[in-house]
Write a structure and sequence with these properties.
The protein is of the alpha+beta class. Helix content is 41%, strand content 26%. A hairpin with a 2-residue loop joins strand 2 and strand 3.
Length: 242
């Protein structure tokens, strides 16, 4: 009788532990999918305001785009910022699956007043893309970074100098503008990569389009395709007015 009760107790504990593990896994999956949804929303809202959007010429020449929604200060005074988001690169078959990333660093001179800030990084040319593929680099240190121009029809150089840069943007309290993120470190979020893809996938393999997009990535990829198509159409219309 005691043996039966003991076995029953062990079985109950095993089921309980398994349930808690499944619940934690579901929550983690939900968190990364919410972040992907939020990244898509940030990109959509930014591009919906022509006077303050990323220039069409920049979008059309971008090799990769990263969105990091809701970056927050870790401390007041000394301290810094930390946030999570996703990045995607152009491939011969369209935009790659979103790769989870983190951004962190010391103070970037942001006057947030306790409010979260959205960041967008646009990787221009092969050099910008190479830094992202390395899965860990410092903006302004390892990689040349600059505050990006705004306005869909704004003149934006696409020469060799521009193609070597990573253009950086921020949005806080509804204001979207270029920002200097020198000192910030961008790296692969390995934990969320495992959650999103169900296993550890090499960062460069994801961004080169060698890893199929998981179902939860659809909102971000749909928005990227939409933004790219609209930028191409708008630039064509402005270049060849009727």
């Amino acid at each position: 009788m005691k043996t039966s009760k003991y076995l029953l107790t062990l079985s109950t504990m095993a089921v309980l532990c398994a349930s808690l593990t499944w619940a934690a896994d579901d929550k983690d999956q939900s968190d990364i999918e919410k972040r992907i949804d939020k990244s898509a929303t940030v990109l959509s809202e930014i591009m919906a305001t022509p006077d303050h959007a990323i220039p069409d010429a920049i979008i059309n020449h971008a090799n990769c785009i990263a969105v990091i929604p809701s970056v927050i200060k870790l401390a007041i005074g000394f301290g810094g910022e930390h946030g999570k988001g996703v990045a995607s690169c152009r491939t011969p078959h369209g935009w790659s699956a979103p790769a989870p990333i983190t951004i962190s660093g010391g103070s970037w001179g942001l006057q947030l007043g306790g409010q979260a800030t959205d960041f967008v990084l646009v990787f221009m040319g092969d050099h910008g893309m190479e830094h992202l593929l390395s899965d860990h680099f410092k903006l302004g240190g390892d990689a040349s970074a600059a505050a990006g121009p705004v306005g869909r029809t704004a003149a934006a150089g696409t020469d060799v100098e521009m193609n070597d840069k990573i253009l950086t943007y921020s949005r806080s309290r509804g204001l979207f503008a270029g920002i200097d993120l020198s000192g910030a470190v961008v790296s692969q979020d390995k934990d969320e990569t495992r959650i999103l893809f169900g296993k550890m996938a090499p960062f460069d393999s994801i961004l080169k389009g060698e890893v199929p997009p998981p179902s939860g990535s659809r909102p971000f990829l749909t928005e990227l395709r939409k933004v790219s198509e609209e930028a191409r159409e708008h630039q064509a219309e402005n270049t060849n007015p009727r």
